[in-house]
Amino acid sequence: MYGNQVKPRHNQASQCACQTHRERLLGSSPDHCQALVPAEKLTDHMSLYCPEQMLDCTVPACNQALRRKDLQGHLLSHITRLTTTVQHLSEEVVDGKKKLSAANEQVDTLAIQLRCLNDKFTDQQQ
To answer: With contact defined as beta carbons under 8 Å apart, do 101 and 93 qualify?
Structure first.
């Protein structure tokens, strides 16, 4: 004890009142989230976990840079747009199949008509 105060617990840096000791144990980045992280884990925090870290979107042709904390929502917007696109393409495929089926029926009808005309022509020449 220091007089009426409780001695700082140096094994838990987040509770350490000694500024010099705190600076040796902790680090923070002025460009990031200001989290107090053990100095040996600061690099990992900034590169893997910091919510303020700027990241490029991983979707091809999307050149947007955004904060890690915003990435999930941004990627969700890509998924929503892709889902809508897939739905529209599926509808177009169904419509295309219907048109192809109708065209095949017309081809079959024309083939029958052509055979009939060919048979008549052959009969007339005999």
So the answer is: no
